[in-house]
């Protein structure tokens, strides 16, 4: 698939091959892009509501908000009835590119195949017909011996899926050896990336040699953003000509041991980036000093500690050998036990369970808001609240994420995750604020938080950053731009408000700027005050 030609592949000091810039890049620049990854398959949970070609969706959970790559309807392929499309155009393009080689075999399957099996079939089909685009896949590291040595349920599952893919290929007359199928599965497992929406909700997986040659750092200089099937790596900071483009394969905001454990388990290497060289001493791993009543606050964890140390996952949470460090290790392990996999299509825990976990962790008095997994728990709690139509609780969680957590966890104002969170909070503010007489709105107003002005402040913030985070012409950028236009155009919401006040359009910018400056300290004060937020939440529940 075509890509932006501002990078070159050559040997990397990190090992193997890497991707290097051929020009200097500013923060927010597109360093590397693909019109479409070579292989892209949907999670089974997404097949029924997502177009298999353009990835537009009808019923996606999460923080997306309405309108971003959303479609009214998707229809089954009339041949196999295992994939869906939003239009004849998408179906035709998919057929020409790949589906004509797989439709008949998919039709014979009782259920849709797992996306990993589907991807391996596409890989082997491309190789079997001599498609040159797939040949470079064979150059990627497979870590076959490492996967087998690690063994366990994962290896058994990989072999089973490889056997399934091999059976499908043999059914269509292609003689694929068992070892070839196993190697293909190993290549996929350690070189694929997550396919996500522009707002980072999981959709499936992708594999492309060009993506696989982007090396990892826990302190990356670029981040991957999807725009439907189009993928771009955008610079988080200025990158000099000739520097290597580095992304993070994992959640690089996680504590040191968690990062290293995940990288070793999935990719079989230890990261030695500048952040990892600090070990547990990095700022993002720090705890607060214990309070005088810490012994009482940590009692629950003391009871759990003997059970946790025997768990196979315990080593990645160990912070030290002292009693205090062991307690903190157990607290971290306990916190992560509530966290869903990033691949989860929907929250597996209800809002009440997540809220309880957040309360227990924060009650210890030693856990900063910005230390993982507390930010991730707040995000999953917000999603669970949205799923349960508990919008007031979702608002408070998202407000804390945006105002108190994201500036620390994602220090770049244009970081795509930070911009998406701002947009999610904006859409929540607008939805809740549409009824200013509601008890929740009145309670917020009593604290000086005007939701209509908060929506405007957040919208301006997103508009300011979207060119660097996603691109103003992207699906996300167009949705954001459309929202601003609707507010500003004659007869729009802002026009109506100021017309009633007798304020001319020329006076708008100064008035809005002054109001936002007046609003934001009140928003921060509300977000920081646990007691007020809890009282409002409980009073209107």
Automatic annotation (TrEMBL):
TM segment ranges: none
Keywords: Metal-binding, Zinc, Zinc-finger
Record has Translocase as a keyword: no
PROSITE patterns: SET, ZF_MYND_2
Gene3D superfamilies to which the protein is assigned, alphabetical: 1.10.220.160, 6.10.140.2220, SET domain
Annotated GO MF terms: zinc ion binding
Stated name of the protein: Uncharacterized protein
Organism for this UniProt entry: Neohortaea acidophila
């Amino acid at each position: 698939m075509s890509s932006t030609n501002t990078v070159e592949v050559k040997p990397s000091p990190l090992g193997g091959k890497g991707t290097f810039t051929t020009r200097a890049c500013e923060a927010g620049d597109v360093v590397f892009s693909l019109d479409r990854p070579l292989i892209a398959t949907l999670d089974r949970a997404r097949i029924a509501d997502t177009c298999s070609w353009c990835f537009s969706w009808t019923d996606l959970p999460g923080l997306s908000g309405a309108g971003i790559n959303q479609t009214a309807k998707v229809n089954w392929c009339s041949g196999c009835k295992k994939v869906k499309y939003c239009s004849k155009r998408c179906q035709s393009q998919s057929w020409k590119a790949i589906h004509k080689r797989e439709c008949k075999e998919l039709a014979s399957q009782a259920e849709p195949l797992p996306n990993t099996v589907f991807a391996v079939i596409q890989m082997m089909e491309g190789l079997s017909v001599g498609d040159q685009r797939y040949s470079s896949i064979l150059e990627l590291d497979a870590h076959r011996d490492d996967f087998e040595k690690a063994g366990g349920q994962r290896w058994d599952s990989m072999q089973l899926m490889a056997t399934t893919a091999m059976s499908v290929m043999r059914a269509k007359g292609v003689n694929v050896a068992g070892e070839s199928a196993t190697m293909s599965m190993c290549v996929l497992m350690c070189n694929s990336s997550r396919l996500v929406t522009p707002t980072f909700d999981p959709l499936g997986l992708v594999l492309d040699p060009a993506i696989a040659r982007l090396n990892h750092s826990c302190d990356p200089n670029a981040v991957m953003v999807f725009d439907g099937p189009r993928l771009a790596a955008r610079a988080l900071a200025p990158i000099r000509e000739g520097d290597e483009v580095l992304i993070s394969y994992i959640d690089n905001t996680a504590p040191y041991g968690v990062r290293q454990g995940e990288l070793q388990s999935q990719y079989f290497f230890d990261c030695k980036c500048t952040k990892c060289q600090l070990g547990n001493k990095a700022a993002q791993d720090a705890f607060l000093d214990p309070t005088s009543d810490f012994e009482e606050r940590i009692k629950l964890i003391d009871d759990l500690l003997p059970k946790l140390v025997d768990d196979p996952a315990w080593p990645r949470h160990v912070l030290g050998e002292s009693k205090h460090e062991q307690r903190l290790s157990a607290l971290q392990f306990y916190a992560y036990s509530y966290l869903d996999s990033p691949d989860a299509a929907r929250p597996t825990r209800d809002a009440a369970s997540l809220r309880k976990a957040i309360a227990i962790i924060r009650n210890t008095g030693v856990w900063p808001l910005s230390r993982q997994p507390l930010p991730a728990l707040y995000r999953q709690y917000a999603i669970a609240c949205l799923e349960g139509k508990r919008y007031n609780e979702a608002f408070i969680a998202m407000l804390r994420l945006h105002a108190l957590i994201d500036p620390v966890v994602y220090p770049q104002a244009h970081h795509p995750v930070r911009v998406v969170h701002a947009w999610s909070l904006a859409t929540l503010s607008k939805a809740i604020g549409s009824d200013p007489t509601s008890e929740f709105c009145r309670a917020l107003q009593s604290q000086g938080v005007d939701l209509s002005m908060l929506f405007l402040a957040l919208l301006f913030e997103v508009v300011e950053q979207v060119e660097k985070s996603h691109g103003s012409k992207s699906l996300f950028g167009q949705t954001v731009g459309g929202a601003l236009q609707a507010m500003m155009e004659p007869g729009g919401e802002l026009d109506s408000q100021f017309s009633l006040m007798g304020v001319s359009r020329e006076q708008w910018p100064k008035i809005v700027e002054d109001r936002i400056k007046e609003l934001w300290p009140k928003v921060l004060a509300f977000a920081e005050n646990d007691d007020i937020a809890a009282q409002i939440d409980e009073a209107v529940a």
